[in-house]
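I am still getting used to backbone structure tokens and would like to learn alongside you. Would you supply a protein for us yourself, any chain you care to pick? Start from the sequence, derive the backbone structure tokens from it, and show both lines together. Go ahead whenever you are ready, and we will take it from there.
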Amino acid sequence: MSEQISRSRIQSLAAVFLLGLAPPVLARLPKLVLVTAEDVEDSIHGAWLKMIYADACARIGHGMTLQSYPARRATAMSDAAMVDGEINRVSNYGTLHPDMIRIDPSHFSMSFCAYGYPSQRVGEGWRGLAEFGNPRIEYRNGVVRCREMLGALSPTVQVSVANNATLALRKLAQRRTDLYVDIDRVVERALLEPEFAGAGIRPLSVVETVEMHCYIHRSKRELVQPLSLALATMLRDGSVERYRKAAIAAASGGRKYF
């Protein structure tokens, strides 16, 4: 069964786990508006994130709205304070986006993987992608970690950008690129689309595993400490793990994805 989950189901899941708050109470709470990449929201990770932060926000007296956009647009909106923050970015994201304040601790980790064909060879880590020839490597627009690390490879490596995972996989299937690097769960979900059933595309290596965080714009800096404390409490009391299991169960009927 696909990892994709309808947005209405994600919204229902989030509501169920809001500590039993009645709808009239929720309606009166001030809203924290967070954004994420559209490839992430309609997935198990998206459902999990929405439950985590709906609960965390409720614990500090706020509601939470999650909106999805292409990753690059989500970045532009958060940088411009058009929204309150981003729900899922790597731990060093704030280095290039100084107006964004990281929520600690990390809610979970994610892995960047290189995808290609079984006959291909890649080395370890980001540098290993360029060890065998001068491959044509693609990543998804707005994924900052890929842009940073692939841009630091040899100048002879050809790096290109796709607007979404489906388009990147389509180019890979047509042999117009040699490797596609992205968050593994985003790619695995896209690979379930019928057009890639016989493509033979496989994960070749885990390039890097990183800790993921929510980031809040400095205009809402007063919420950073209470939200961090709420998340730390949820990790200790088992809420984050319960939401992981709930997201998996809702999407797969019990099938284990991670």
The chain has a mean pLDDT of 88.
